[in-house]
Structures are given as structure tokens and as C-alpha cells.
Amino acid sequence: MRVGLFIPCYVDQFYPNAAIATLQLLEKLGCEVVYPQNQTCCGQPMANSGFEHLTHGCNELFIKNFDGFDYIVAPSGSCVLHVREHLHDEHDEAKAVDIRHKVYELTTFLTDILKVESLPARFPHKVGMHQSCHGQRGLKLSSMSELVAPAFSKPGSLLAMVKDIELIELNRVDECCGFGGTFCVAEEAVSSKMGKDRVADHLQHGAEYITGVDMSCLMHMEGILKRQGSNVKVMHIAEILNGVEN
């Protein structure tokens, strides 16, 4: 199985440990992983700001970098959702469609494609799981609390395989953190208040770490935690599943 490793630009620049953990975890599970050196932004920030017509260069570069892989995996639900729904090529749309169907968020790839049933990981800490909106509502990584339906969580099922981890229960299991990409710039006051509420739920239940599938959401909450002088840390789920402990 040949996997193309898609690393979002903000992970590459600010949280390389999440990228390294993703690579190591996939290799441990038997994948041949290749990181295309020339990859850049997928174009999501422009599209979210109303400028999707300016993302043609991003689309063409993405297709050039990731054409030919069996699967494409990324530690970011929001970037994966953008590619799956918005990748186009005016010269070869069939190739764009093929690549869209091969792009997977990490935890979905682990549960649905590799069908992981156990992990040799240990993380002896109290951890709060943040369900990011793009992953939950766009990629269907977990159930939504407002629906009368059986509950499930792909990230949660993987975390449950980690030895000695204690997953805390939150009052609002799928509340938005307020990041929302460019929303946190356009509506900073609302975004900040939502983030403080999301962090407070984790703190109330004694979390030592907050984890999730989107480093962007975790980055937003990390800023709030640091401004509050909290010792609680954020960590991408890949680092926990890979057995990394800081």
C-alpha cells in the first residue's frame, strides 16, 4: 500500500511533531509512505474567504504531487474535506475526481481502510477529545449529539486502544471551539468566547491534555490556554496513537 503523506501548511510550519507522528504511525502499520517535497497549501483559506476561483494553482499542484498513490492521508480533517469537495482540474477533471476519492483523514484511514484493532501505545494521562466540526459534520468521524442515533467516534475508538489513557467526559461533546479558519480573524470576539467556553469544559473535567484530529482547532485552544497561564497541553491525536509522550 503506497500512501502519499499530505501535510497541511500550518502543521508543517508550526506543529511538525504531528506530521512526524503521522509518518511514523503509518509506517508502523505497514504502509509505504512518501512525502511529496513540493506540496504547499491546498487552497482552503482562499476558498473559505470567497476566493475559490483563485485556487486553480493550488489544485493543479496538488494533483501533480499526489497523482499515482493508492491513498493520500493527512492529519487534518478540514484540509481533507476541502480537497474531497473542492479539488477540480479544468484540463483533466477525471483525474481530480479520482484523487478526491483517495484522500483520507488519518483516523478514518486507520479505522476504515487499515481496520486497526490494536495499537502498541501508552499515554498515562487524562485526555479530553475535541470533535472538530469539519471532521464530525463533513467527514462523519463521529456522531452528532443532536441526532437520535447510535453514538460512535472513530478518533475515540482509536484512543480507547491506548494503554493507561483516561478519556474524560465533556458536558458538550461536540461543541465548536470557535476557530473556523478565517472566522477567527473576521469575528475575533465571538471566536475567542467560543474557544474559552470549549477550553473551560475540558478544564472542569480535569484534562491534562486536549487532543483532536485538527491541529488548527488545537492551536486556537492552545492560545487561550497559554493566555490563561494553564499547564494543560494540546497534542494531535497522531502523537498519542504513535506512543509519543512529551
UniProtKB/TrEMBL annotation:
This is L-lactate dehydrogenase complex protein LldE. Residues 3-83, 127-221 form the Cysteine-rich domain. It comes from the Bacteria. GO terms for molecular function: oxidoreductase activity. It holds the Pfam family CCG. Signal peptide: none annotated. It comes from Mucilaginibacter yixingensis. GO terms for cellular component: cytosol.
